[in-house]
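Lab notebook, bench 4. We co-purified these components, and the gel suggests they stay together. Before we commit to crystallization screens, I want a quick structural picture of the whole thing.
Request: model the full complex, all chains together.
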Amino acid sequence: MAAPLVRHAMRRCLAHNCAVTVRRGLRSGATPSVFTRLLLKLDHYFYDVESFLYLKEWWKTKVVKFQNKYFGYVQKRYGAQIGAAYYILAIKGSFRFAGQSQWFRPDSTGMFSFMRSPHGQIEEVDLSGTLINLNGLGNLISQNKLKTLSLRGCPEVDDWFLARLHVFRDSLVELDLSDCTHVTVGGLAALQNLRKLKRLDISGLPRLQCPGLVRILLEEMLPHCQVIGVESEQGMIQPERQEPTDIDDASTQSGLRRS
Amino acid sequence: MWRRLFATAPAFRAQKAPCRSFKSSRRSDKDVFEEVEDQFRAFRKKAVKAMPGSDWSPFELTPGLPPERADVVIIGGGVVGWSIAYWIKRKERTRGALRVVVVEKDPTYSQASTVLSCGGIRQQFSLKENILLSLESADFLRNINKHLWVTNEDPVDLQFNHSGYLFLASEKSAHVMEENYSTQRYAGAKVVLLSPSQLKERFPWMNTEGVALASLGLENEGWFDPWSLLNAFRRKALSMGVYQCFGEVTGFRYSTQIAEVAEGDFVDFRRIKCVNVRMPNSLEYQPVECPVVVNAAGANSGKIAAMLGIGLGPEESVSGIPFPVEPRKRFVYVVHCPDGPGLDTPFLIDYSGVYLRREGLGGNYIAGMSPEETEEPDISNLDVDHEFFQEKVWHHLAHRIPAFEKLKVSSAWAGFYDYNTFDQNGILGLHPLVANMYFATGFSGHGLQQSPAVGRAIAELILDRGYKTIDLSAFGIKRIIKKKPILERNIV
Ligand SMILES: Cc1cc2nc3c(=O)[nH]c(=O)nc-3n(C[C@H](O)[C@H](O)[C@H](O)COP(=O)(O)OP(=O)(O)OC[C@H]3O[C@@H](n4cnc5c(N)ncnc54)[C@H](O)[C@@H]3O)c2cc1C
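Here is the predicted assembly.
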């Protein structure tokens, strides 16, 4: 954290911290609908409503689980490449094989077909808006030529997911994490394993408290990587509103010195 | 027309309101008979309450007393205690079938190791059991909201930092690291070995002098907020019907059977009947009758074992072997260093024993080290020895990360390890001399990360009479009686 820029950003950000309210939430954090609120109210009084609420949650997890099942059979029968391709298309994502320019994606009815590529492996994957989660990622880990991965707006992508991305550490060059509502700085720290990363999009992450500072820290952590989607100044308040903090003292007093 | 009606409505109400205040009160409306009837009704209610089978009593009771009878009493409301409570409730067949009571002496948790720990989780152990426990716990933490979310409440946010652990080995210890690495890989942990040059490339801020090998955890390792985990367990367990009671366990009522185990060697076998709980700030005791007791009192669990006569028998005999868990004080220092390493700082464990991790994004770190066996600090209080940092910790730290030559210690705290003096591993299961007390303690600095899996294991022992998910029989108390330690090499 040698850069004076960081220190400056940090100071501002710390002052800002108290003003920012973190949006936590299983979902995106929007206010629940009248119906949901009514259910929550009733749940205070009746056990049955609780089980109904659980049922709703249970159904949601079932759907996610179903979409992310492991295509072990396909993988064994037709190879990892076909397994991965099949999974991507099944959750309505799209991909491109290495050495080809054609993208494969399902049509509007969800039907798809693709040709096996004789030598190439999957090089680019676009999973924007899909329900991919950590289990689903298991279908892709054999794709060690994967260069570009877009996870824009994936509601099930969280910090644990990012921590597993180390499986692509020898190939991944471009990663798009924009609008992933669950991603926090604790998961972004795990991207340090992706030493080949050249481009990282972190725009619209609601749970990042000081996007500007995080961007600087990420650029410091991955010196060859361009971090986009956040201005360095974003999430920081102007200096006049800043209050003196501990950090201020430290940087002026220059701390202790070991004899 | 509707709109006009609405528009006039407030005015209409405003007109009416003053009239109401002129009305006479309701009470004087009633005649004498109605009043008598009311009195009778109230009396009848009270009488019903006082019938046998109800909990009404003519005497004032201390609020928060534990119930008189329970199925399981858990001593210690730290993370291990609450995790066991949660898993027992989770495994019960019908709702409310088991009455589980958690007894905690300190509602503020001012001395509990859980909240004073560093919150780290790693799979880099040398023993298969420890690796598996930690892997299972990581799985639990990953799905924490499936386990511990309570409807109507905020989801649990552990603030997990996926930064991994980085162990450094010197020339002397490199071969041990390699062995551990293969055990860890075999058990399913995601770890890589780094050579000094790779290390330098990955972490340019580090001085790699003296390092022969390093191992870095890629997945499921990092640190989180222990308080959030404790609270989440507690909130969920309470919502499932676990009783919480603030009081101190000061003794037991038990029955004793004397048996001759060998020629002339008599041993007392005990069975707990009641747990005596003393209420805070009073001399009042409440005996809680129960068939199963769990000792999850952390650093204090050795004392609880002594209450049952464990270790107090004649030397040489089984009852003379003390329960080997005692409090050991460990210091944690919060340092501020604006030029220190950034977001890529892992939980660093140097071969000198010094550890360091980042705390937040503001250039703060926490660091510490375990003292030599011969220099253990006094455990009568939780005061911090600041000299220890200056003399022991700092030069190792500054040697490894030169930026730390210049730093400021901004605060510090101390906590008690539930230290297992025998072999520094958890002690799980029944004691051969006490028929119905399960132990879950002695984790020596890695109890927080193992708590979810340990809770499940103990619940399995109690309800299924054996381990179902992970076989932890190696951590049983037999090894202490037989004097066969199972040593863990990666103790921090
Ligand atoms: C400085 C430090 C750093 C640590 N770092 C880590 C780490 O990075 N990772 C990790 O996994 N672990 C770490 N640990 C270890 C971890 O904190 C403990 O192993 C774990 O918290 C043990 O949990 P527990 O519930 O058994 O004990 P505790 O949290 O100590 O809970 C025991 C509870 O029992 C209560 N109690 C005691 N006696 C009685 C009685 N007679 N009656 C009623 N109640 C009683 C106490 O009040 C206490 O609340 C660390 C510990 C320390 C001290």
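Chain B touches chain A at residues 142, 145-146, 149, 151-152, 154-155, 157, 159-164, 190, 202, 218-220, 222, 336-344, 361-363, 394-395, 398, 403, 405-410 (CB under 8 Å). Worth comparing against the SEC data before the next meeting. The longest strand of chain B covers residues 248-262.
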